[in-house]
Amino acid sequence: MPTPVVLDCDPGHDDAIAILLAAGSPEIDLRAITTVAANQTLEKVTANAQRICSAAGISVPIARGCAQPLVRPLYVAEDIHGESGMDGPAFGPLTVGVVEEHAIEVMHAHMPATLVATGALTNVAMYLRRYGPAAVREIVLMGGSTERGNTTPYAEFNIYVDPEAAAIVFGSGVPITMIGLNVTHQALVTPDIVAQLNALGPLGRTCGELMTFFAATYRDVFGFAAPPLHDPVAVARVIDPTLVTCVEAFVGIETTGTFTRGATVVDLHGRLGREPNAQVAVGLDVDRFFDLVVEALRTLSCR
C-alpha cells in the first residue's frame, strides 16, 4: 500500500522537485502540502507550492503554516533561490488554491501519516507541541549534516533557520530519519540529468529551467560544478528505503553556540553516551535516486 505522507516544505527549487517526486510516485499517497517560511517568506513559498502544483496538475490541500521561527527573526536564502524563492521559469496561471486552515490543523486532519519535512522545522515543532507525537508514524527530514554546514561552517540552512524547533523535533521521541548535506551533496544535477528532464515535455522543461537557475547560484555561491538536489532525497527515502543507507545515532541541536548555532551534533561513535534518537543518512545510491526522480516526472507529464 502507498505510504500516506504530509509534505511540509518551503519551495524552493529542490522542494519543487520533492513535491513532484511525492506526487508522481505510486509508492506515496500525498495527502497534503504544508508551507513554512524559510527559503523565502511564507507568502512567497506558499505561492511557489501553488505554482508547481498548478504546472503539474497536482490536486491536494495546500496550507500555510508559520511565518516566523519560534524565537528568532526569519533568515531567507535569496542568494540561492532568488527573490521569488523559486526563480527561473515563467509559470502559468495558478489553478490550485490554498485552504483556510492553518498547516498544523491540516497536518492533524491527515494523520496518521509520515511527515516529510524539507524546510525549517517550525511547523513540525508546533504540531508536536499542540498534538503530541502519537499520530506521527515517522518524520523524514532534510536538514543538518554529519560534516560541514552550508549557511555557517557547521550549520545547514533548515536547522539554522529555527534550531529551537529542531531541538523539539529531535527530542520528541518520534522515529526520525535525518537526510543531511553529507548525503544530499552526492545528488548532483549534472547536465545529463537536466537533458533528461528537458526531454519530458513542458513539465520537464520547467524543471530543467529550475535546475539551470539553481546551478548558477550554487556555482556562484559555493563553487559547485552542479547543484545538489537536497529535498527529494528525503522523499526518495520514503519511496524506497534501500536507496539511502542510514546508521542509528544521537543527534543534538546546538542552539546557543557563538559560532555553531544550528549545528547538528551527530554522535556517530557513541562518545556522548546518549541513546540514539535518529536514523542518520550516510550514503545514497545516486543512479537509482535520479531514475526515481525522472520516472516520477514522466508519470506526471503523461497525466
TrEMBL record:
Domain of life assignment: Bacteria
Record-given protein name: Pyrimidine-specific ribonucleoside hydrolase
GO biological process, one term: purine nucleoside catabolic process
PROSITE patterns: IUNH
Domain Inosine/uridine-preferring nucleoside hydrolase intervals: 5-291
Presence of keyword Electron transport: no
GO molecular function, one term: purine nucleosidase activity
PANTHER family: INOSINE-URIDINE PREFERRING NUCLEOSIDE HYDROLASE, URIDINE NUCLEOSIDASE
GO cellular component: cytosol
The keyword Hydrolase belongs to this UniProt entry's keyword annotation: yes
Keywords linked to the UniProt accession: Glycosidase, Hydrolase
Pfam families linked to this entry: IU_nuc_hydro
